[in-house]
Amino acid sequence: MPSAAWAGAWTLPQGTGQWVATLDASTATDYFEAGGLTSTPRYDKDELQVLIEYGLTDRLTAILDPGLQHIDIAAPTDAARTGLGYTEFGARYALMQDPNWVLSGQATLRIPGTTDTSNPAAVGYTDVESDLRLLLGHNFTLSGLPAFFDLEAAERVRTAGAPSEFRFDATLGVQASARWLVLAQSFNVVSEGKGAPLYGGSYDYEKLQVSAVYALTPTWSLQGGGYTTYAGANALAENGLIFGVWHRF
User: Fold this and answer.
1) Got the DSSP string for 170-189?
2) What does the radius of gyration of the chain's CA atoms come to, in whole angstroms?
3) Which end of the chain is flanked by fewer CB atoms within 10 Å, N or C?
4) DSSP character for 12?
5) Burial of 110 (0-12, 13-18, 19+ CB in 10 A)
6) 2-248 CATH fold
7) pLDDT tens-digit profile of 78-101?
8) Band of residue 2 on the pLDDT scale cut at 50, 70, 90
């Protein structure tokens, strides 16, 4: 099952690599505040990211993740931006591993594609950031099917006055058949101070994503799915669709 995970806590064997190109299209017309959901100008975001990983050794995997981004905010804000998103690079190291468990540490630096803080469509995407995380992965069987979980706790250190964030991500993967991998993922963010990207004060948001990955060949796969922001505070209630192409080399 480490080969089915294709990311997360596992590292790649030396001399092997993979890339995962993901197109994410989301929209929000509401945001979370203390009293519940409140309407907001329509916020549309399209992102294309290409996560590239390569095994420098069996324990050390290099990471590069560039991206393109388009954001459009309707009137009365009436703002738009198209260009580079964040480019992330770093490495993941397996601290402990056996056939069924892996504990790893990961450090990456995130470089923004713009520093234009005057554009509302760029707010939240202009700061240099570092991401430090601890990852735990485990292979097991679920109702007789091969499965795995991946748990990640991270500190996202941000600059230029934006609050740092605590992040917790969880993935459950089940190999439903020889070609189908089903993924259920939870992404959770809590700010460590005030200064929400769009709405004042501290913020948090929780997303649930469900997708399926179909293996065309042993090295090529396609992914499709969607996500919803089901809870939060001072944060957009985004809903989106994802489409991905995975390749191992």
Assistant:
1) EEEEEE-SSSEEEEEEEEEE
2) 18
3) C
4) P
5) buried
6) Lipocalin (2.40.128)
7) 999 999 999 999 999 999 999 899
8) very low
